[in-house]
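Please check these two lines:
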Amino acid sequence: MKGKVMSIIPIFIPHAGCPHQCVFCNQKKISGQKTASAEAVRQQIEKYLQWIKPGKENEAAFYGGSFTGLDMNLQEELFKPVDKLLQEGIIGSVRLSTRPDYIDEERLALLKKHNVSTVELGVQSLDDSVLELAGRGHNAASVVKAVELLRAHGFKTGLQLMCGMPGQTEASFMDTVAESIALKPDMVRLYPLLVIKDTPLEETYRSGKFTPLGVEAAAELCAAALQKFTGNGINVIRIGLQPDDELCSPGNIVAGPFHPAFGEIVKSMAVRNELMPQIMALVNAGRSKIKIYVPQNMESKLRGQHNSNIKCWQKMGACIEVIKTKNASIYLEGENNE
């Protein structure tokens, strides 16, 4: 018998609780929400109740802003509609996102009181110079301290990381990935930096002082990070921003590596990079006629968008035949050249 499917009720609290204006941030454009209030929470919840089947596996999730940076009384008010969901058995837990420097004993006690089980930290980078340029207002040490405190109190912990930030190099980003792995989070989200309308970064971009990554460059970095995290048993639960109507409204995204299928592009690149050494070895051994056996649900990731992975391997001299299989994983066979 299959297990019950988990449903998430997303609740956005734009920029609420944030003490800083990060150069890349305009949560009103990202979330479509304008204010943080109990009534706004209720309205968002109502949209999802009509199709959610009650169950302890379901979760309410506060996104945007920095929840624990809110006044404690406002936090209590925002929790009330969610507490009702818990009491009625519609959900079984709550998650939220916040800043790493807004984690302490008092705040965590309040979260425990309201059945919060998972806290995601807006980390973005663990390079202090990059954090300073972004106007984050916290340093890498505060991230380490927050993770340790969350773990000590039994919370599941997520890290939200960003590539393509001002002053960030490929080495800096991969160092952040390595340092994040060392913190042993339960989950990670990966986002490429976008230039959003009405942000300080838009002005920097238009003045010619900042050039965002392209889709391919950002996807390559995220693919490398994805491989590192999954290789260390850390689940990457999201890659790229949710392409909703508000974010995708004309003019909201000024520049940067936005693609509605960014996550799929990254996953395909990760598959390509993982198989590359095996394919190169077969080609170099004179066995360039290569059959790749792939589970049906992974065929699109194997091929890449518009067969980009297949074309990449063909340029290396491989003659690729893709064969769908009922096996759970991908494997290769190479034949000698004739």
